[in-house]
Specification:
The complex is a heterodimer of chains A (561) and B (383).
Chain A lengths: L1 H19 L14 E4 L2 E4 H13 L3 E2 L2 E2 H10 L1 H4 L3 E5 L2 H6 L10 E4 H4 L3 H12 L8 H21 L21 E4 L7 E3 H7 L8 H15 L2 H16 L7 H13 L1 H21 L2 H30 L7 H23 L3 H21 L15 H34 L4 H36 L8 H21 L5 H25 L13 H29 L1
Antiparallel strand pairs in A: 1-2, 3-4, 5-6, 7-8
Helix pairs in contact in A: 2-3, 7-8, 10-11, 12-14, 13-14, 13-16, 14-15, 15-16, 15-17, 16-17, 17-18, 17-20, 17-21, 18-19, 19-20, 20-21
Chain B lengths: L1 H15 L5 H35 L3 E4 L3 E4 L1 H20 L6 H23 L1 E8 L3 E17 L7 E5 L8 E4 L4 E9 L2 E5 L14 E6 L12 E8 L4 E7 L6 E5 L2 E27 L6 E11 L5 E7 L4 E3 L2 E10 L5 E9 L5 H31 L1
Antiparallel strand pairs in B: 1-2, 3-4, 3-18, 4-5, 4-13, 6-7, 7-10, 8-9, 10-11, 12-13, 13-14, 14-15, 16-17, 17-18
Helix pairs in contact in B: 2-3, 3-4, 4-5
Classes of the chains: A mainly alpha (561), B alpha+beta (383).
């Protein structure tokens, strides 16, 4: 039986190799650990693959496999990747304008070969659109430009190792400056070049360079399906690249691949989500068990997010928050921790519910930003200060987290007030939670804002300049101060305070996204497009929530009177 | 007598009490919220500079052209008085209230620091070519008229700001022996050149006949000022002069046998040191267009003539006395010459925000810890 199977296997490999001229290699993990220099950062090919695939298809995996498995095909056997459906198209009109028929859903992924008949038209249309100003383009035009760019990058990637094909006739300039720069070109680490450029520098003679020799071995081993030789050639290539000046920190490369494999923030999102679901179960049956499970999930989500954050800090040698993406991760981490602490002190479900909910939402938002490209990008000159990043940004994010969480508890309080108006103990507990978390938020928002002022004083020469981002933080501070003082002056009571914290969340959203939409001021480096609608929807939702619950509470009071 | 006095003091205090009202605090803070939102949204259309001038550096401004609204300066002044009042009448100095007291004291220091900066700080700009040495910085938005007598060996320049000048304002130059009387002064304008054969109403070396007033630009630094004034000497000879900010020629006038020169330029500040720009460099991360740093290598020569090499880069300014030099921008001319632009800030109240922040933060921490402690005690008591 076993012999039969083996014969079958050998036969099928032979057959396949005849047909497609290469046999499958069982693991390309080591290939993913080759270093590539992109946008100023040395990263593993694994990350490069994931970022490219995210930009192409809106997800970091293809066919439930890691992106590197797709990329290795694109680089070494491009023909085999042309059937892979990786080009996400969300706009029907974009397809129509290049004469390609829709397949299945309006939002669907297409292969290179499916798009091939329309590529000539795509080029023409994209060229004419590129003459218009970016801000004047509509959704369809943006999609066409995006598709054109993706196809362009794909084509470039397919050319990366063409010089290893003996049959290829190299005569074109199209091979110059390809994006996969895997070979350092000087002693100062100022420039890395592509394998093809290195091939040209070596007078088209592979045997002149150890790196190119190793790549050639790698290529042949891949085609033959020889795993051992494949891995060995990767090692040879890495050693050749290392040379005298070792620019690559292998440990960091390994950890980054580990980070990609674990995908901590994607998984912790599920922990937080299920924590909420099980908490709701606990209200209906098996109260104790579901409660414990829910707290366990929240804690696990927190630990996983913390692990991911620490990994990122190690890989980049930076504090945890350096860009917009990380602000959401860090806030999610903080709200989870605050939720756990609150639950330990109050044991009233409120910590689990609000902590899990806020963290879940934060990680959801973060995952949207992750699609924009490398989330570990290099820092522009003005941000390049670990000291201030560590102090100002972290404290302000702690503050935002506090204000957001108190706002979420504010929502809960309002709902409790409507449906359980007589449960004084519950309401009192929720109110106390709001106060303490709000106080935490106020202290850190204040500290963060002031430290931001100090940083601005150090780098721009003024403590305060009424820049939109500064004003956003100031609004949150002012609003928190108003709530505290209005309470002291007896202008508002508990319910008014709870509504105030909901407004506080709106201010946080405005400070986070709104000011960037204005696109003015020194802080507008975090500019993001397409979020105006979401922000508008969020604010509308909060206003409607406040109107409906406010009306219900008013009617409830009248009925009681 | 003593009783009467007390009564009098009590009466005054009674009148002053409303200033300490917490409701007033809330109203002021709400007002600030409105101003901050309005001033931020305004920036999208009118830019940061205009918004600063209208909303944040003003006592009053007109909404929709006719409704007077208190500006941030006024609101913060009321808030400061309210704070001082509340320190006396509400918070008081008690051990149980120490956190609250320190926080509010910190806020008063913060506002005082803000006031000092607002009224007394001076910001200017220093643009230098590689190899150039300078000891003068230039204002970004304030203009001045410079006046000097043409002499062979000596040149003493007198100058006056055009900011806030009104029609018929008088300026005397006793050393030169002339008086100026302002006819008109514009903060932003464009020149109208004289047509050939047209009579000379104003004296101007570039042939500008009059000025057309223009709306202020989004950035104050882009405004080009203009001024018309009459020059009189003791013999009451009257000449009318027109100066325009972008005019490259100085206008010359002969009075009492003296050649007097006039020019309208951005206000200049003499620095206590000489600065030489050795090299300016932009560094990029490898294989990217992401700027890693902007750096200027300069040599400074201080009052004592001591030379020192310094690197000024983003996040690493040069400090000298109460002056700070920041790497703020750069310019590369079409011929490849590199210019580095520094922002020069003189601010004696610079340290106050630091002090106040420490007070406020410490106060808030003490306050909330004491609150938690009291609540815990209460819960234990109830238990």
């Amino acid at each position: 039986m076993k012999i039969k199977l083996n014969i079958l296997l050998v036969l099928s490999v032979l057959l396949l190799s005849n047909q497609i001229a290469y046999a499958e290699i069982s693991s390309v993990d080591n290939f993913g650990k080759i270093a590539v220099m992109e946008n100023g950062r040395i990263k593993p090919l694994d990350t490069f693959a994931e970022n490219i695939l995210k930009q192409f298809s809106g997800t970091g995996k293809y066919d439930n496999k890691d992106a590197i498995e797709w990329l290795v095909k694109v680089l070494l056997v491009p023909e085999k990747s042309k059937e892979d459906k990786v080009f996400l198209i969300t706009n029907q009109d974009a397809l129509d304008s290049i004469g390609i028929k829709r397949v299945g859903k309006a939002r669907n992924r297409y292969s290179y070969n499916q798009l091939l008949p329309g590529l000539g038209k795509l080029r023409q249309v994209a060229m004419s659109i590129s003459r218009t100003k970016r801000q004047d383009r509509d959704i369809t035009e943006n999609e066409i430009i995006s598709l054109y760019n993706r196809i362009y990058v794909y084509n470039q990637l397919t050319m990366s190792f063409k010089f290893l094909e003996k049959s290829e006739n190299f005569n074109s300039r199209a091979y110059e400056g390809l994006p996969l720069t895997i070979i350092p070109a000087d002693k100062d680490n100022k420039k890395w070049i592509s394998a093809w450029d290195s091939f040209m520098n070596n007078s088209k003679n592979i045997t002149k360079s150890k790196k190119l020799m190793a790549l050639s071995e790698l290529y042949n081993a891949y085609l033959k399906g020889d795993q051992v030789k494949f891995d060995k050639s990767i090692l040879n290539f890495k050693n050749a690249v290392k040379g005298k000046n070792n620019f690559v920190n292998e440990k960091k490369i390994d950890y980054e691949v580990l980070y990609n494999r674990i995908d901590p923030f994607y998984k912790s999102k599920f922990f937080f989500g299920f924590s909420i679901i099980f908490l709701l179960f606990s209200f209906v049956f098996l109260k104790k068990w579901f409660y414990r499970l829910s707290l366990f999930l929240l804690s696990s989500g927190f630990l996983l997010t913390l692990f991911g954050t620490i990994l990122r800090m190690y890989i980049r040698s930076r504090p945890p928050v350096t860009n917009l993406y990380e602000t959401f991760i860090f806030t999610g981490l903080t709200t989870a921790l605050l939720g756990i602490i609150l639950e330990i002190f109050k044991k009233r479900n409120i910590g689990i519910f609000t902590g899990s909910f806020a963290s879940f939402v934060m990680l959801m938002i973060a995952s949207k930003y992750a699609l924009e490209g490398d989330t570990m990008g290099m820092l522009v000159a003005v941000l390049d200060s670990n000291f201030w990043l560590a102090f100002h940004v972290i404290t302000i994010m702690l503050g935002y987290a506090g204000i957001v969480l108190s706002g979420v508890i504010g929502h809960v309080y309002i709902i409790q007030k409507i449906f359980m108006p007589d449960n004084d103990k519950l309401l009192k507990d929720s109110m106390q939670s709001i106060y303490s978390i709000q106080a935490f938020g106020l202290v850190f928002t204040f500290l963060g804002t002031v430290l931001g002022g100090v940083w601005a004083d150090q780098s721009w020469g003024r403590f305060w300049g009424w820049d939109p981002k500064e004003n956003g933080a100031l609004l949150i501070l002012l609003w928190s101060a108003i709530l505290f003082h209005a309470k002291i002056a007896k202008m508002i009571k508990h319910t008014g305070y709870a509504f105030g914290t909901v407004v506080g969340v709106i201010f946080v959203a405005l400070a986070w996204f709104g000011v960037n939409l204005l696109g003015v001021g020194l802080h507008s480096y975090g500019f993001t497009s397409g979020i105006a609608r979401t922000l508008f929807l969020f604010i509308s939702f909060e206003l409607i929530f406040m109107f409906i619950t406010g009306t219900m509470l008013k009617f409830g009071e009248k009925r009681l009177n | 007598m003593e009783n009467k006095n007390k009564k009098g003091l009590g009466l005054i205090l009674n009148y002053l009490k409303p200033i300490a009202s917490v409701k007033l605090t809330v109203i002021c803070l709400l007002f600030l919220v409105v101003l901050v939102i309005w001033g931020t949204v305004y920036q999208a259309d009118y830019g940061l500079y205009q918004a600063q001038q209208k909303f944040f550096y003003s006592w009053f401004f007109l909404a929709f052209g006719f409704i007077p609204i208190p500006g941030t300066v006024l609101v913060i002044l009321v808030l400061t008085l309210n704070l001082i009042g509340s320190m006396f009448f509400k918070i008081g100095f008690r051990l149980s209230n120490i956190g609250n007291f320190i926080t509010h004291l910190g806020l008063i220091i913060l506002f005082l620091g803000g006031g000092l900066t607002f009224f007394f700080s001076v910001e200017s700009s220093l643009m230098m070519m590689e190899g150039e040495t300078k000891n003068r910085s230039t204002s970004r938005d304030i203009w001045e008229v410079a006046v000097w007598e043409q002499m062979q060996n000596k040149k003493t320049v007198y100058a006056f700001d055009t900011l806030g000048l009104k029609k018929d304002s008088k300026i005397n130059f006793t050393d030169i022996g002339i008086n100026l009387s302002i006819i008109n002064s514009f903060s932003n304008c464009s020149p109208i050149f004289k047509k050939t054969g047209e009579g000379e109403m104003y004296l101007n070396s570039s042939g500008i006949g009059s000025l057309n007033i223009a709306a202020p630009t989004l950035e104050g630094s882009e405004n080009v000022a203009g001024i018309m004034f009459s020059v009189k000497n003791k013999d009451a000879i009257n000449n009318k002069v027109l100066l325009y900010g972008k005019d490259r020629n100085q206008t010359q006038l002969s009075i009492n046998g003296k050649e007097i020169n006039f020019v309208l330029r951005k206000k200049q500040y003499i620095l206590p040191i000489f600065i030489e720009l050795k090299d300016f460099a932009i560094k990029y991360y490898p294989n990217s267009q992401i700027v890693k740093s902007y750096e200027s290598m300069v040599t400074i020569k201080d009052k004592l003539g001591v030379l020192r090499d310094v690197k000024i880069s983003m996040n690493k300014p040069l400090r000298y006395d109460d002056l700070t030099f920041f790497q703020s921008s750069y310019y590369i001319a079409p011929d490849g010459t590199e210019y580095s632009i520094f922002s020069v800030v003189k601010n004696s109240g610079r340290l106050l925000p630091y002090v106040s922040s420490l007070f406020i933060f410490a106060g808030l921490i003490i306050h909330f810890i004491m609150m938690l402690y009291r609540r815990r005690k209460k819960i234990i008591g109830e238990g």
